[in-house]
Structure formats: structure tokens, C-alpha cells
Amino acid sequence: MKSYNIAVIKGDGIGSEIIAEAIKVLDAVASVEGFALHYDDLLMGGIAYDITGDPLPQETINRAKNSDAVLFGAIGGEKWDTLERSKRPESGLLRFRKELGVFANLRPAVVYDELINASSLKPQIIKGVDIMVVRELIGGIYFGEPRGREGDRAYNTMVYTVAEIERIAHKAFKIAMQRDKRVCSIDKANVLDVSQLWRDTVDEISKEYPEVTLTHMYVDNAAMQLIRNPKQFDVMLTGNIFGDILSDEASMLSGSIGLLPSASIGSKIGVYEPIHGSAPDIAGQGIANPIATISSASMMLRYALGQTSAADRIDSAIAQTLKDGYRTQDLAEFDAKEICSTSEIGSIIANYTVKKS
Ligand code: IPM
Ligand code: MG
């Protein structure tokens, strides 16, 4: 039997609750599809700081690098917000992404028909939306030097090299080839030199993908267009900070940030995580929506382990669960037949994955 070693990082806040449901679903689907998953629990985030004094212990990096894939919950919380920056959970996450070299962050924003009323936008605007945000994840202003704070000044630097732009552009075009063959590259080239380099480089790379239609858009306009007419987008290619902002915005097209998964990939080990945060305000209450994490687990099966039919099972099980009216509290107002706890909805999805013939 094929067996895989999954590094699991629960992290903080609702992390352990949502990961528990993803594992429940993974185990169900593995048993019916005939493969085995072994989980290696690793420390990271605020909890890692509390226990070891470091939000990203070296052991976590080593063991993650030795896994087949990383399944990630969420990190952070107010409790750690006053620590010096290098000790904060978020710094651990950024270092982790850099260590693993996961330069491409794929954030699909898909609107489930069953939840068409859950969005704050009109149904006709969002019906059929299917966007893939391709966000550069280990460069840009998040990592640029120099950075610092001196007296009454503080600064960060937005840096991209041609090589960094090329590799993320290739990813975006390759993904577009599997989809509707449209890439919209988003920048601020009317103001920023780094964005002009971005635009020129993406233009250059696009020549290798003649079937893909490339357009460019300024980030402020893109933020507006996403709300005005989101169906115009197929693949949105963008840098680190613009992608951070636009992917949160895109997630709300679907009605809840609790639904959207992500995959961060590079050359080797990928990290699969929901796009939402650790939601300390609802932690421990059993009301978090685990669907984004379960859906991230499905991306992990598909992209990291090549278990396509297992991933298909999970995706249909999620759709079926929503169709049958099972909702966590964040979606309670939208055609709910039954309001479920985090663990109830996990069990329903797990059962549906097994039932599909
Ligand atoms: C995300 C998050 C992170 C980011 C934070 C927690 C550092 O917002 O994954 O989108 O900004 O990348
Ligand atoms: Mg974010």
C-alpha cells in the first residue's frame, strides 16, 4: 500500500479544531482509496513560541523538509502581538515559506452555487466565478532589504528580481493553460519601478505561451474590478503584498473566508493551508468552518500526492454537504437546513467521501 508522511502544523486559535476535521476526512478517503497517511505533528506559531521561545523551531523546518507535504492550520493571535517582530508567529510563517522555497501561492476563489446567496454581491454578478489568484510568496516587500525602524522613521523595500518574476509568471501561465487560458497580471507600474520590471518580465515570458491571453491591470483598478465584475478574471498573477490583499477580497465573493483553500508550492515540498487566520475570538467553541482546511487537504492530495480521485471525492463531498443544507455558523443565514458544529460538518463530509461510488 502506498503511504505518505504528512507534516501537520495545527498552530494557534482554531488551528487544532479545523485540522482535526481535515484529518478525519483524509483518513476516510485514504481507507476507501487504499493508501495510508502518517501524520507528524510539528510546532509552529504562538504555541511554538510559548513552548520553545521560537515561533519556528529548527526541528519543525527539518521534519517538514522530510515530509511529502505540509498540512497547515493557522497561526497568530493578540497574545503574541506585542512581542518583538522576530518572535511573532507571523515571522515564523514567513521564514517557514522561505525555508521551503514555496514561491507560488495558489488561491482559488470559487463560488459554490449552493451558497450563491451568501455573498454580499448580487447572485448574477458572482454566479460561476472561478478565479485562481497566483501570488508570489517569498519575495517583494515582505522580505526586501533594507528594512527597519530608526527614531521617527520606518521603512520596507519592495524588491523583485527578473528571476523571481520569471518563475512565478511561468507558474501562472502553466496554470492558465489548464484553465481558460487568460492571465491578468496585476501591478502598480504607473508608480513603482519594481512593478515596471514585473510588467516587462511578464510580457517577455508570455511569448512562450502564445495560447494564453495576457492583460495587465493596476492593483487599485483590480480591487475595484473584482467587485464590479469578477467573472472577467481567470488567473490573476501578482506579487506578494498585492496578492495578500486581493486574495482576501476574492475570498469574500464566495460568501465566507472559511471556505477557501490554498496551496503554496515551489520546487519540492508544498504547504497546504486555509487562507483564513487563526480566529482566536471563536477558538475552542466548536463553531469554526473547517471547509477551507478540508479543501486544502484535497489540494494536497491532488498536487502533492497525485491522489486525484481521492481529491475528487473530497471536492464532491464538500459540494454535496453544502447542497444538502449543512452549514457552520458563518453561513447560518444562507439556505441552512441544519446548523452544524465544526466536528459535525467534518463527519458529514467524511461520510460523503466514502459514499461516492
Ligand atoms: C496570508 C496571511 C499571512 C500573509 C500573514 C499571517 C503573515 O495574511 O497567508 O495571507 O500576509 O501572507
Ligand atoms: Mg493574508
Detailed description of the structure:
- The protein is of the alpha/beta class and 357 residues long.
- It has two domains: 214 residues, Isopropylmalate Dehydrogenase; 106 residues, Rossmann fold (3-Layer(aba) Sandwich).
- The chain is 41% helix and 20% strand.
- It is built from twelve helices and 14 strands.
- The strands form three sheets. Strands 2-1-3-12-11-4-5-10-8-9 form a ten-stranded mixed beta sheet, with helices on both faces. Strands 6-7 form a two-stranded antiparallel ribbon. Strands 13-14 form a two-stranded parallel sheet.
- Strand 11 and strand 12 form a beta hairpin.
- Helix 6 packs across helix 7 and helix 10 runs antiparallel to helix 11.
- The protein starts with a strand and ends with a helix.
- The structure holds 3-isopropylmalic acid and magnesium ion (MG).
- 3-isopropylmalic acid binds next to helix 4.
